[in-house]
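Comment thread on ticket #2218

A.B. wrote:
> Attaching the input chain for the structure job we discussed in standup.
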Amino acid sequence: MTDNKQGQSITQQFVPGAAKALHIITDSASSAVCSASHTAEFERAMITERTKAGIAAARARGRNGGAPFKMTAAKLRLAKAAMGKPGTRIEPLCRELGITRQTLYRHVAPDGSLREHGAKLLGHRG
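C.D. wrote:
> Ran it. Output below, let me know if you need it in another format.
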């Protein structure tokens, strides 16, 4: 630790790495960095708190957020009937329903029976 012309103490730290960079940190600069760090941490906490409060308020009004589901009950009934028939081609069926192959198989088995997500969508128990 050394003193500069104004009588401030200066800390010199040698950091290993490219060109052995020399960092000179004065007491006032160090406290300014700490102050900025604390302010940023406080702001982040406030943003998180406001976001959670906004989401809770939206849920209280009946809004859940997110994109609407592609598979509807009507589409599921059509898919179930089509999958139960032999010779059904999956790609054209998915294109007609406006869903992906993964969505189709998440709701309906290849034999046309409902899977867990399909039963939940139609309100079936079991």
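A.B. wrote:
> Thanks. Noting for the ticket: Confidence is low (pLDDT under 50) at residues 18-22.
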